[in-house]
Design a protein that fits this description.
heterodimer; A: 529 residues; alpha+beta; Beta Polymerase, domain 2; Cytochrome-c3 Hydrogenase, chain B; 2 domains; 5-stranded mixed sheet; B: 295 residues; alpha/beta; Alpha-Beta Plaits; Rossmann fold; 4-stranded mixed sheet; 11 strands; globular
């Protein structure tokens, strides 16, 4: 473990060497921020990523033309529990920047998104096609620029069609699927190039459920934005709500009371449990193992009913507020929670034993959809997908939040990277979650449920992180005047992991795609926003 | 194999007999307004994240308080904010209606000096509130469904689900209809892959710009007779997404909607109720509420 001060000194000395004297440094709390000239941006990012082995946590583009006459890019890296931001300013007269993607591959989608949403062009990006906006969106209209008026309808144009990568050769068949799928799932387009049954290449076209949430938050009061943050996603509602609240609390300098922090952890573990248990059932659906699907669905239902009894909501909405929580647990709730979790854990254990003892299921999972460690690391995989490929990262331990600094976090890691490894990580994590949830219930501190949040200082930045059931969510918030939100960047776990799915599929059979996809169990709505 | 049989035997039957029985539990359902406590002030409207509550002034000087359940996200902030305790969150979740209009709850505060027509107006009475009174009707409609489907559609009901830009909570609840607890197949209802095989289009989400063409194409591909059901606050009224550049706002701005199922998301039983209403054409529980108070 490197001491923070050493990190900073080493970082700064190295950066001076890498980008010259022009680097400016600013520190506050858990954040270090370095401003570099735009032509040295890629050098600085490559230095932080390479020398500190720091994963890219998020990247934000800002339109600061009104205040400072510039566009701004902020690449945020996670270094030893702290955030290191590499910032640069871009002249609106020349809205281009050198792409960091060739040296920091995890930046690939962020830079394409900045190009779509702010009109900043990443020079040298290996794949500069549109990402978020689709074909009928007009050229030159950038929704995240401050002078974009969301009340004026944007016309649909007959724009150039998205260029998919085509594979040519004898026997190669292209299979387009979606955006509407056969089952009850979210929309996205997949294009397979296959020879016989074997997939050679998979390309995804996503962002069909893009709802303009980041723009929607701009100018709204911080407490109202929480209602939007909660609705970025259904299955990760609480993770998003808590991440947003933490970002705002960091800006306000508010400390969440111990009882509220512990309750946040408890409900977050319930969220992880209902997702993981249900996802294991869904993996069974991917191979047509009906008994497993039913058992997973039934146990998930038990936990979601518990959610409703404890909080009034099956997806735990309305639990969190800025400064603490809105829901308390009384003695009846505590008894109910302890009994239900004990019962479900026993049944979940039998369910897991059944899965592991079913050879036909294991046979489909072992070796299927393997993601090598290097791919997971370089593309910045998070969550279950990262931990199943040997990447030991978990925000609950690496960036302790809520009540997790008081708890014993057991992070299961496997190295095979296949469907079975991802299923096994979910199983191990679920048992760890049952243990964590009971640990919180046994040691629930007393005290107030929230700290009042007063006025927020304008133009300050806060970063909130949670480990959702799908992995790390990073919420980057900058305040505006009078308690409003000026810029809100939501980077969900699915944002990091979708590109990994496209890597996991080639070499497998087409019919294994649903299984591989379900083993990642990513959200479209979290991604598309 | 023995393991599998043993697991199934040990589990037994887990299906909830809805609509014959219904447990509301502690769910956060419809907000109820107490017209006698409400003074028509706009505290609740200011905190409402989806603009479901509006306070307006009529030409005659009366104040009108209105709740639009199609837009409501059931967060309960209005209950917390009201200084007079006039709003109470209830566990009523069976809110599906055939008309958008039936999801409106209005309270008009008429100043005494202008209430010349007072004699002609009935005292403030809540009408059509969702109570357990309609339980037998609903149970009967469930039993009656098989024959009804046969007579109406000549085959069992096939649903094409379409996520038109939802936050996936509604879609998860729809997926839960197929688990052994809700088991919607017991009604002869099932989900199909192609819109060409579907009798009913079950739409979630506020209809994003990127999905609107797909939604229209899906509807166009369906055979007659066809039904459209909007599931959730975003599909019914846009929820917190109203005003975004990337959404149309609600399903009925794109397609004719036969049944609205409010909720954020609606519980699985609420979706079953909406499907039964769509099929049997019995009266839903919700009716438009108009209350009048002499202030």
């Amino acid at each position: 473990m490197i001491v923070v001060e050493e990190v900073r000194n080493e970082l700064f000395a190295g950066l001076r060497h890498a980008v010259g004297e022009a680097a400016l440094r600013r520190e506050s709390g858990r954040e270090v921020s370095i401003t570099v000239p735009v032509d040295r941006l890629a050098d600085a990012c490559a230095f932080v990523k390479g020398n500190l082995a720091a994963p890219l946590a998020t990247m934000v583009g800002l339109d600061d033309r009104e205040q400072a006459g510039v566009f701004r890019l902020v690449y945020v890296f996670s270094v030893d529990g702290k955030w290191v931001s590499v910032e640069t300013e871009i002249d609106p007269a020349r809205p281009r920047f050198p792409s960091a993607t060739p040296r920091v591959p995890a930046a690939h989608w962020y830079e394409r998104e900045v190009q779509d949403m702010l009109g900043l062009i990443p020079d040298g990006h290996p794949d500069p096609r549109r990402l978020v906006l689709h074909d009928d969106w007009p050229e030159g209209v950038y929704p995240l620029r401050k002078d974009f008026d969301p009340t004026v309808p944007v016309p649909r144009v007959d724009g150039p069609r998205h260029r998919f990568h085509h594979l040519h050769g004898e026997g190669i068949v292209e299979i387009p699927v979606g955006p509407i799928h056969a089952g009850v799932i979210e929309p996205g387009h997949f294009r397979f190039a296959a020879v016989g049954e074997v997939v050679l290449h998979l390309e995804t076209r996503l962002f069909y459920t893009h709802r303009g949430i980041e723009k929607l938050a701009e100018g709204k009061r911080f407490d109202r934005v929480l209602q939007i943050a909660e609705r970025v996603c259904g299955a990760c509602s609480l993770s998003h709500a808590v991440a947003y609240c933490q970002a705002v609390e960091a800006i306000a300098g508010v400390v969440v009371p111990p009882r509220a922090a512990a309750l946040r952890s408890f409900f977050l573990e319930l969220e992880r449990l209902y997702n993981h248990v249900g996802d294991l059932g869904n993996i069974c659906a991917g191979v047509g193992f009906a008994v497993g699907t039913s058992q997973g669905g039934r146990l998930k239902e038990e936990i979601q009913r518990l959610n409703e009894r404890l909080t009034g909501h099956r997806f735990l909405r309305g639990v969190c507020r800025v400064g603490g929580v809105r829901r308390d647990l009384d003695a009846v709730h505590l008894r109910d929670a302890a009994q239900t979790l004990q019962k479900v854990e026993a049944e979940f254990r039998r369910f897991v034993d059944l899965l592991l003892a079913t050879d036909s299921l294991m046979d489909r999972m072992i070796g299927t959809g393997a993601v090598p460690f290097e791919a997971a690391r370089d593309l910045g995989a998070v969550g279950v997908a990262a931990r199943a490929s040997g990447l030991d990262r978990d925000a609950r331990r690496d960036h302790p939040y809520a009540g997790y600094d008081q708890l014993h976090i057991n992070v299961p890691v496997r190295t095979e990277g296949d469907v079975r490894a991802r299923a096994q990580v979910r199983m191990d994590e679920s048992f760890a979650s049952f243990a964590l949830a009971s640990e919180v219930l046994r040691s629930l501190p007393s005290g107030p449920l929230f700290t009042e949040v007063g006025d927020l200082p304008p133009y300050r930045i806060g970063i909130g992180v949670t480990e959702s059931p799908r992995g790390e969510n990073v919420h980057w918030v900058r305040t505006g005047p009078a308690g409003s939100i000026d810029r809100y960047r939501i980077r969900s776990a699915s944002y990091c992991n979708w590109p990994i799915v496209a890597l996991a599929v080639p070499g497998n059979m087409v019919p294994d795609f649903p299984l591989i996809n379900k083993s990642f169990e990513l959200c479209y709505s979290c991604l598309d926003r | 194999m023995l393991n599998i049989i043993r697991t199934s035997l040990r589990t037994g039957r887990v299906t909830v007999p809805y609509p014959e029985q219904s447990e509301t539990g502690a769910c956060r359902g419809r907000p109820h307004i107490d017209p006698d406590r409400c003074d028509g002030s706009s505290t609740c409207a200011e905190v409402c994240p989806s603009g479901a509550i509006a306070v307006t002034r009529t030409a005659s000087g009366a104040r009108r308080w209105q709740l639009d359940l199609a837009r409501c996200v059931f967060c309960g902030l209005c209950e917390e904010a009201c200084p007079l305790g006039a709003i109470r969150m209830s566990a009523d979740f069976e809110l599906a209606t055939r008309s958008r209009d039936d999801l409106i709850v209005g309270v008009t505060h008429v100043p005494r000096d202008t209430s010349d027509a007072r004699e002609e107006n009935p005292p403030a009475v809540a009408v059509g509130s969702a109570t357990s009174a309609g339980r037998e009707d609903l149970a009967a409609s469930g039993n009656y469904l098989g024959s009804r489907i046969r007579s109406l559609l000549k085959r069992s009901l096939h649903i094409r689900h379409m996520a038109a830009g939802s936050d996936n909570s509604c879609d998860w609840e729809i997926a839960h209809l197929l688990n052994p607890v809700y088991d919607v197949q017991r009604f002869g209802i099932d989900f199909v892959a192609s819109p060409r095989h579907a009798d009913l289009l079950l739409v979630t989400g506020a209809v994003t710009r990127h999905l609107e063409p797909a939604l229209r194409a899906t509807y166009a591909a369906m055979p007659f007779p066809r039904l459209v059901v909007a599931v959730g606050d975003e599909a019914c009224g846009g929820g917190v997404l109203q005003g975004s550049y990337a959404v149309a706002g609600s399903v009925d701005r794109c397609l004719p909607v036969d049944v609205y199922i409010p909720g954020d998301p609606p519980r699985p039983q609420a979706i079953i109720q909406g499907l039964l209403i769509a099929l049997d054409r019995l009266e839903p529980k919700m009716k438009r509420v108009e209350l009048r108070v002499d202030a």
